[in-house]
## 1
Amino acid sequence: MLNRRNALKVAAAGGAAALFPWDRLTGAGSQAVASSLATAEAAPIVPFAHAMPLPKNLKPTSFTATSDLYEIRMQEAQVEIVKGLMSKVRTYDGTFPGPTIRATQGREVVVRQINELQVNTAVHLHGAHVLSEHDGLPMDTIVPGGERTYRYPNNQPAASLWYHDHAHHLEAENVFMGLHGLYLLTDHNERTLPLPSGPYDVPLVIRDARVEADGTLLYTRPSDCPHMLVNGKERPYFQVAARKYRFRVYNACANRYVKLRFADGIEFTQIGTDGGFLETPVQQSELLMLGGERADIVVDFSRYKVGDSVVLENPGAQSIERPEVMRFDIVRTAPDYSFVPGRLTTYPPQPTPTVERDFEIRTFPAMTINGQSYDPNRVDITAKLGTTEVWTVRNVEAPAAPGKPDFHLWHSFHTHLTYFRVLERNGKPAGTRDLGLKDTVTLGPGDTVKIAMTWGPYTGQYLYHCHQLGHSSGGQMGRIDIVA
Ligand SMILES: [Cu+2]
């Protein structure tokens, strides 16, 4: 394993331009990769050794009449990801994943971010409508020892958002090493819905990892990552009551998709996606999620007896790992007055599009969108505030040969500032995979999607990019300026 990986890295560094950030042997951020090559093998996979923790809620440091103020120190920490091993990670406030910020529509959140790490950072609130200067643009970095205060107005409906790193060329490694945390925005509508709440509203932050036998968390290609984490722990178990739960599922992987289904094939109810609630709930039996995507689901465990267990599995697991993602153990009964109503929200009408644009995403021979790598000084698109546009986005990669890893052939198209609706996938009307208000859409090899968005509510400089973060770090990103 060591020899093969070393050979790959040396070949990449000595050959043509390195495509993937983990192929860099020199430069900012690569020290962790280079030093980690000292150990040979990944730690063995031991499923269900950990109880699943819940990310801690961050407490405001102070309040004003209109705002909640928070302070986060980005710092290194030692955490137990795989049972019995300590791993050095990059954190928000010492926890892995970072602490959860709970926000309310109409009330501003102000976060002072202090960088005590050795690397540049930039904090992006994924899915939020924020002013450009608070969007965490790749060049608006916080240098080691520096700090920056971000303001989030929260003038948008309830949604499961997350904050994560976006520093130029470093976001993939920084997110992989731990710089991601949840931001749960609520509103009046959500509070009136009879959904499972309180201890029955649980985040599941799913991501892959490679932990070496000595505990080192190694940033490397997804096909070398055998570990699958939920809320920071390798393949945990979670004790539940025989009743309904709401799960906010995040794919926080830097570079891969996950498929999720229950081992016994049970259906669950999807109630939300990236931009908040669906208008009406939908029964699903499997989710396919690429990095950045969220799915809000309700699972009814009352179908099981106390003492039963059910495994959430990933049919997209590779041969070096295992299909189990986590296990739910039904350990007690509990009263349940929650239910999923037939109508969850109502979207504003979609204005008629007046602009069409085409995008082609490529990994080979270089990480590009429409043939160009990201240049922060080049404006790729100028869009007018309030204009509705239709974008046709094509993934031009060919499918992998059977049995070969294909994560690098998938793309995950993400827009900042606003949500979009998926109109079509491969010439057909969008199906249950592309419901609701989205900010990230998956594109398998050869896929084409049509999406529509209305640009606003702010003018300024924003981004669109692939949310396979190894791809965006390599340049699969464009600049869009919104003008009045
Ligand atoms: Cu991509």
## 2
Amino acid sequence: MDSFKRFLCILAISVLCIFLFTGCISSKSTSIITSSKDKMLVHYIDVGQGDSILIQVNNKNLLIDAGSKSSTVTSYLKKFGIKTLDYVIVTHPHDDHIGGMSSVISNFNIGHFYAPKKITNTNSFKNMVVSLNKIKLQITPAKAGEKLDMGKNIKCIIVAPNNDSYKETNNYSVVLRVSYINTNFLFTGDAETLSEEEILKKGYNIKADVLKLGHHGSNTSTSINFLNEVNPKVAVISCGKGNDYGHPHKETLTKLKDKNVILYRTDLDGTIILESDGNKITKR
Ligand SMILES: [Zn+2]
């Protein structure tokens, strides 16, 4: 009897070991799938006060803006082994969005380079243009209705700017909606209420699970009509700790709280990476 008990005990331990072992294998292989195919990754890169977002899907890379410092975004992209950016989008030519762009242009192979038709007199802008000229890369003017090709299961559509000229440079901001199967993301640059109203008037589908708030959470953006139409579950604010502008503004935070939107902030959370499998979005 004793030896039978011993036999049962050994059998139980063996079954447990096999279970644990195969359990390990399957969780390992899941993580391999996660980091390569059938997922979209959206990196809201911590660039201090500014914007820079990397979207990776179907082995393609799309970069929106490049922060204010020359090296931050370049180092981040290199850390991920990136050599080619299939698309680069400049939302608008303010330093906190294009400061690092000259370095990006000089360090990566770029497929298409989109920017709104707006020229500025700053060094960042001049450096960006010089770098583009050096590699003979042309700017494709970004305007509403334009679609980008990021491969299967992806739809990328520019929904702003909807006009040729604005008093406020922020309103030239390229606004991009990215859909991956059943999940949707909206990227708004620094578009203010005027541009938001134009988007609503044009009737574009802007519903999104994740909204990158306009203008670093400033009260000049995220009007209640716009927020209601986007109806996000998650909001991301890209801003610097203790910035001079008081971003994000209290009014914006209250609107998000009232709608029970989950909020991530680069000033508090650092770089935020969201992963979509096409149906579910998770924070890495
Ligand atoms: Zn900005």
## 3
Amino acid sequence: MRGLRLSSILAVVAVGASAIPTKGISSPYDGFKVFRVKTQGHPSAIQEKLSNITFEQWNHDVNSHIDIVVAPDQLPVFAELGLEFDVMHEDLGASIAAESVHSSLWKRQAGDPSWFDSYHDYNDHIEYFQSLHDLFPDNSEIISSGSSYENRSLYGIHLWGTGGPGKPAVLYHGTVHAREWISTATTEYLTYKLVTGYNAGDRDARSALDKYDFYIIPIVNPDGFAYTQTTQRLWRKNRQPGPNGSTCYGRDINRNWEFAWDANPLGASTNPCSQTYKGERPSDTPENQGLDKLVRQLRDGAGIKLYIDWHSYGQYILSPFGYKDTLYAPELGKWTKAAQIVSDAIRDSSSDLTTFTFGPSGATLYPTTGAAPDHVYSIGRAEFSYTIELRDIGRYGFVLPPELIRPTVEEQWAGQKVLWSLLDEEFFDGVGPA
Ligand SMILES: [Zn+2]
């Protein structure tokens, strides 16, 4: 892929802590279009044609389509390529501006669901978790899973129910990829529903928290996330400088986990300028080191019952293994059965019948090395370990309009509460490998 070096064309606009996020950065994308180019099973022929223009590619699974961001000066050449496509964003700058409806609508009351009507400034996210803790003082604590390269806390919350803490862990990570903002909202919504539901006597929230300790870290890549709000909306990696004088920044924290880090050359990039740059060594990002430390602590404590790394987009529920598409774990049968039940619950709960595809990661999508679910299963010994790719399937991609936050997070609550109720069921005994 010929990547468009977006950093070279973006003006850096400094935004103060209390300013409106992203508003200042909409203009660099003014006039950019996002296309879903159909490949219909022949991606290499289409990629050959696309090599005539520069673009940024959003997806890796190119068998049916390639989603690309095209700058205004490339549009005439793109039009001449004779490709079949749909328009995802007519004007990406306008879509980003529409996305940054400000959080002042939120009344700074944690019990108020209007938080989920807009995207928010990084500092407000920290405050939001503090206010959820304040609603649940005897059953929660604010925790940190380490620090980022720029020294931001990987803050989170630990929740427990009757007789806790100390039960097997449910661990959620959000926003490892900085631009996947809907994953922040989703991990926050699940926290909000657990806390307010437990307080109100909700049966699902009570039974989950009485059985498991929840560890929820909504922004595991805070430097990248802050960067998407101040400078470049579509940034993915962390903000660590490149090695050996490389001018490119950032490592993909989700290609940096120790387990099988180097197992498959197709699973990550060794190029510091790539979106999937895996680092120089396993776990050579401060973020990964902190996350891994908590994983090992939980393993050595009451153990990890369920791990989910929340991403967007594409609507998938993916289990290990990612690093090798022909390798099936002995637990794959139960993981797939559980994923199917979650997928059904999501579909049944959503007014537009949202469907999620499920299966082992490498075989279902594409190979990934050094990715979280493989590590948290193999090293962290999690009984269930997934990546969930949230909405959508390509209408808006990473720039999901604020009015779609609520339906997206609500359907995940429907999926998770069913999943929690099944984790300890004998139901899974005897379900063999798929
Ligand atoms: Zn992601």
